[in-house]
Amino acid sequence: MVEDQPDDEFVEREDREVGVGPHPLPWPDDTRFDPEFLEHGDRRNVGDEYRYWSHEAIVADLDTRRHSFHVAIENWQHDLNIGTVVRTANAFNAEGVHIVGKKRWNRRGAMVTDKYM
């Protein structure tokens, strides 16, 4: 059974920050870390093990464990469906996703996960 919750428990806070703030000094001496993220914080939707890493370093690390399979999508009707498949392929560390046909899609549904493949 689900209990009713007071409405104020579900109020979204506009001042809520996602991610982590600036890294405490001294900063790590590792080329994978991005000085901008170390200085200003990392607000991206990445796993904790990749916090403060540059985009290129994350992709390079994922490439060492990437699976060789590709996913093909044939002209689905809704962008959200394509984004869902792209996010799932990323979760399984697929090597690539191919959209077959003339369908253009809104990449927002992938929530930037297409950048890590």
The profile of the biggest β sheet is: 2 strands, parallel
- List SSEs in N-to-C order: HHEHE
How many domains make up the 3D coordinates? 2
N-to-C terminal Cα separation, in Å?
Answer: 41 Å
Based on Cα principal axes, name the global outline.
globular
Number of strands: 2
**Oligomeric nature of the chains:** single chain
Total count of helical runs of at least 4 residues? 3
Q: C-alpha Rg, in Å?
A: 18 Å
Strand order of the largest sheet: 1-2
Could you say which structural class the secondary elements and strand pairing correspond to? alpha+beta
Instruction: Assess the beta-strand content as a share of residues.
Output: 5-15%
Into which percent range does the helicity of residues fall?
10-25%
The average pLDDT score comes to 82
Set down the secondary structure blueprint.
Blueprint: H1 35-40, H2 55-63, E1 70-74, H3 79-91, E2 96-100
Parallel strand pairs: 1-2
Describe this structure in words.
- The protein is α+β, with helices and mostly antiparallel strands and 117 residues long.
- It folds into 2 domains: 21-65, no CATH class; 67-117.
- Helix content is 24%, strand content 9%.
- The chain is built from 3 helices and 2 strands.
- The protein has helices spanning 35-40, 55-63, 79-91, and strands spanning 70-74, 96-100.
- It has a two-stranded parallel ribbon.
- Helix 3 (79-91) links the parallel strand 1 (70-74) and strand 2.
Describe the structure in brief.
Helix content is 24%, strand content 9%. With 117 residues, it is of the alpha+beta class.
